[in-house]
Amino acid sequence: MTTTETLDSLTRAVLEREEMVRLLAGRHGESGPDAARRVHAYLDELRTTQRYKLYRSLQHPLYPIFRKIQRVVEHPEIPQAATQANRVIYVSNHKSHTDYLVELLVIDDLKIRPPLIAAGINLFGGPLGLINRHVTGAIPIRRNTKDPLYLITLKAYVAEVLKRHDLFFYFEGGRSYSGEIKAPKTGLLHAAMQADVPDGVIVPVAIAYDIVLEDRALARQGGTKRRQRPFAAELAEMLTLAVGFKTRAFVTFGDPIPMAGYSHASRRDVLDLAHRTRGVIGRLYKVLPTALVASAMRPSIERKDLVLRVDETLGRLRDAGANLSVRDARQAVDMGVAALEGRDVLHLEGTKVRVRDRSVLRYYARTIQHLLASR
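User: That's the sequence. What structure does it adopt?
Assistant: Structure tokens below.
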């Protein structure tokens, strides 16, 4: 919330919502002072403040990383127009911890109003937690809790926030550890639908990198998150991985999806809207040379044969209407092999290309699997 808005006004609006009145009346099995105390504690946890003038300065402590990420924006006119006429909910895939700043700095570059962002509660420990809570306007989300008091309070809070601010969230929940675009989680989408904002639209956003900073750390977990580490530990690892790191980050905006016509009371409508949004994001996702090479690789292959395989993959992707960054197979192989060799994923021996790190190679191959799976 803004610095001029009192905390009590938002809290009061949340507590006056019908679902919260029912909750505190014991309709979900809990009532009385203990339930009220827990609800107020959750509301205190969810409160956030966005100090817009300080936001851009956050890139300076992370300059060793951000100076190596070239931001490339596609269809910037879409959010510029959408924010002129609508309440906007940005929904994106999630690749890296760098997404949070890359995508929101892109929005800031476009000179449009900044959204609040939903982020995992693991990002709220220590000094970084203070920054997220009091500068970036990040809302801490307990992703794995099944406490009905928390879930109902969270949805009510998000619904009221949307009456005051735009919102940005990642439909997959956490980052993709396998590289693929995951199935959508519907909790925050359902909360956004509950806001009943008449002019609310979803602006789909796809983010893709030539090289993901945490690729090796993600891939070595075997495609699934095995444990939640403190973000400070992950940040320290990211700074280490940034040595020799350089990449492009493609941020692609899609046409707005009106929320009118979808009912939050219908589970089918919630799922239909979630899958529609995921499908659009999948088609917006930028197909980069590293993904093309990874999907075409064999344990050992002649470069000329790799070019032929990439050319075949490009044909399938063109038929699928994919968002291609390169259309020439030879150029894709030159760029992709160079990037993956620099990451020690591939090794070039004369005219032969060999795999050095199969798990990381599979990670990049899976990033475009959704475009190839049905073809």
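Residues 30 and 258 are 36 Å apart (CA to CA).
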